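Support request, please re-run this one:
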Amino acid sequence: MGVALVAFALPAPARASTSLPSVRSGTVDRFTLYGGVIPPTVGWGWAANNTTNPGPHLYVAYGDVVQLTLIAVDGATHNWFIDYNNNSIPDLGEPSSPDFSTSNSVVWNFTADTIGTFVYRCKFHPSDMTGFITISAPTRYTLYGSVLAPHIGWGFNHTNISAPGPTLIVAEGANVTLTLYSADGIEHTWFIDYDNSSSVNGGEVQSPGFGSPQPSPLNWSFTATRAGTFAYRCGIHPNVMWGMIIVIGPSSGAAPQGLPIGLIPGIMLVVIVGVLFLAAVYQVRASRAARLRK
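Re-run finished. Output below.
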């Protein structure tokens, strides 16, 4: 009787991630990285003479445009990519730069659209040229609200107002600041409708009024205390001015390939116990068969 063994690849620590709706914040984060694989210039660095492996830890916000200037410091060909699933090769959906060398440095952009901390690598030298990039949820948003046609709803500026408005992404426990404009001059409020009742109830955060006769813009902050996906609304015009907000909690992420990190050791234990059990059953049957033959 054959026994099939299942192998599980353990992800590196702190690799939980959350893929979310694409949102452009309008912010451009610019970094210049030097890369090499020939000693003593092995890894990535802010300058040609300070490359290390791992290289610099990059920090950006979800929705930001990241602009990388990539410069080779040796005679080899290199690449830069984010290894979301930590398998050391660029896969579909993983941002991956054009190749570059000492004769052709590149300036390349991508949008940070997956929240988490990940390894970045060179596809040609994935073990010798690594670093970490953290993509965090934003803590500031600017919203324009209107209830007058043709611009009804919410938008990131006064020309793209719609219902539903843009999806907002924040982290549980974060202090979030909203800059709220009345695009129609009418008074509005902003609140998170946890129970989706279209009215403000106990425990639901609501901004002060903004727009005539209240001041606009209004800078207002709140703490995201409850993880989940909820509607946000105007407390005065709740059914026509709304959008979605995703509050990401510590356990919202999923490990690469959909296996929760905490379950992987348990899965491996179950596999091992199962193999031992099958081996024991096989041994018992073989012994019985041998006795019968005698």
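The chain has two domains: 19-136, 140-248. The two ends are 22 Å apart (CA to CA).
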